[in-house]
Amino acid sequence: MDAEPYGLQREMLLRAQFGPDGHPTSHRYPPVHELLLMRGPLDTSLLARAVRQATEGVDVLRGRLRLRGGGTVRWVPDGSRPPARLEELEPGPARQVIRAGLRAAAEASFHLQEDPAARFLLARTGPDEHLLLIALDHSCADGRTLVLVLRHLLHRYAALAGEPAVAPAPFPAFLSFARQFDASSAERSAARAYWQEALGRAADRRRRPRFPGAKDSEVTSYSTDAAAQLALDDGDLAVLNRLAQSAGSDRHRLLLAVTQLVVSAWSEDAEPPFVPLNYFRNGRHRRGWLNVPGPLAEHAVTVPPAQEAQETWLLGEWLEAFVRANAASPPFYGLSLRELETPESDAQRIAVFNFLPPLGRLSAAGLRILPCPPELAAAMEPEDQSARFALRVRLLQDMDAPLILRIEHDPRVLADGTPFLDAAVGLVRTAAARPGLPLAEAYRRIRQHWT
Description:
Number of domains: 2
CATH class of the largest domain: Alpha Beta
Helix content: 25-40%
Number of strands: 14
Largest sheet: 6 strands, mixed
Order of helices and strands: HEEEHHEEEHEEHHHEHHHHHEEEHEEHH
Oligomer: single chain
């Protein structure tokens, strides 16, 4: 009843550490984590019970990577990995508890055989205010998995508190999903052929962005310790939704395309319609497989919407073509980028930004669960100030506020995030009002936000 390692597990095993018994014990990838601000009366004993109930039946969180007969490592859903539990830290001001334990817990690696696959740390930071850190082992989880875990956690907490709540969709079994796509599956073979061609086509177009005011655009060890965010008012939200509908998209995929254009406008020797090769975590938000917990890492690798650059692209045409290209591309089906690229091309890969899945509006039994404020997000940066991406873009929405577009960035690569956000929102407005605008003119307008 085991399965071949799936998705990001495959890449992790290439650089994993192994114990004397041959079982993998650690890997180089940092945990998937989210720091949440919880406001309202909190019953910590109920939350501790909810943590256990929300995670104990999730096969991907209770299974392990184990050496099997024949000398191969398989994913085994035997339920033997220790269950998750809630750990409470000493109360104090938010920055103090972050330094005292939350940041370290978000960075610390997991022992693949002995540690629970999930960490839940809670600290009281004020009257009816807590910080909750959720950290998941990246060998069994990605950002989408974390969102699913959080929703199930809040549902269990509400149920234990006696509050009626609509149950989220049940966790599908990771095992049954992963077993569909072993090395010999037709889906993986087709996906491999598609992405090898697409990555090869995009390789010649990789350039670094050179944003105005950048101190060191050649930096490769990133530190996303600066942040900016912009609330979309009702008018902008209506424009965004209308533009997404006209492009045959949802607003998340549309914002991916818009963000790509903003990055593209500042890339070296940018000529429309250059699109850098980037990664969009859990990117398409449209197929049933995205609801499966686990280390899917189903990057939608964005490539130019046409093999040959067209100098006559119009803004509306380009957005529609970009959305269609990404919607039509197959998922990775468990492939690793290292299966598709040579060591030389892997070394040249430029990861510019990460577009993260939205948390949405969340509440439970009188609690409001809010995004981490920018100043606290900056305090969570690793001690060595390392990050995998120069820019992280995400959509946020708390209980009473409008939709928020947020960017966390390395100030050496992007000195100020505000012009970036202004350019993205301005591009949405322009695309809705003037879809026939030449793409070259759209590039010029993007650059105006930095002057």
